[in-house]
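Take a look at the protein record below and flag anything odd:
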Amino acid sequence: MNRVRMWTLGIFLFVFGDAVAMQARGPILAELSDAFDVSEAALGLVAPAGTAGFVLAVVATGLLAGRLPIRRMLAIGAISVVCALAAMAAAPIYLVFLGALLVQGGAAGAFRGLDRAVLSHLHAARRGRVYAAYAFVWAVGAVLGPQLVSAVLTVADWRAVFVAIACFFLPTILVAGRTELPAVDAERSLSRAALGELLRRRSVVAACVGMALVGAVEGILFTWLAYYAGTFYPTTTANLLLSVYLLAYMPARLGYTFVIDRVPALVLLLVATLPTIPALAVAFSGATGPVLFLAVFVAGAGLSSVFPTLSAYAVEAAPEYSGPLTALTTGATYAGIATAPAIVGVLAEFAGIGRALWLTVALAAALFATVAGTWLWTGTPSAPSSDAASS
């Protein structure tokens, strides 16, 4: 296997493990509540703790991608994730758990602030397809996350979950430690002037807003969907509902892998995101049984299009700055993931978790409006090559 394939495999394995780790957080909330005796508002801090460090690290490493020793940073990120997961498993109190989660998110962010930039240069001729495949691999890991929690909890306590997750990152550490990284010389260092120019581009501004909105919806569902279902289903069924939501990502993102280079990005997003609005409304209307499972599946299929499509859309506008653009769009996504679940936790204290989750409907409507507005603002459904907001 050549170096390009080895590194592609190593990156995909890390993304798979990162998805498993992220999707284990929601299904384990009830266990954390019992172990540490904390309220719903305090449980809402799990999402910010897991993503605050991620956002800072992914933005910092992405913006400096042209200046950093990329292979070393990827190795350090993977090793640090394993150490942080071990600390989470051993945490004696909730505050220590949150601190280890903050470190784990920061380490993952340091890796993922660079990984798509590496893939962008290793697969420059098929960037959109590789980004969609990257998102598909994440979806596979995400689907398995809740089921891993259910499986481990049948034979051990919640601490063993994080030990099991740590094992997924070991192959990436081996790749980073033993395989030279192919040259990524096309990645340019970013000056202040160039950063200012990027931030004035309509496509970049719109992509970041869209990513923040989809991150908000996804963050709420990742964190609270299983908890919400646990109010009327047993734990295994509640976790299965989250897996059904995430299962929709797999066929949907596989389909996007084949159409993303053939259909204008904004057209694809409009068609994909429109059904999510009524689907989320049905999901949190009090429905149960097959209707609830079908509604969350439809929502997952539509929302899963946004991350890979907007990522590729932004990078296609300025591929020489793939690292910074990856950092900006990923940072925006995880900013939404960090903040929205905490808001739902506060709302749930006053209005109940069912009513609080209606926030997802409003956010999905705002996402659809953002995509439509981007087409009007830029004048094209595809990524424009030059689109300064001031022009």
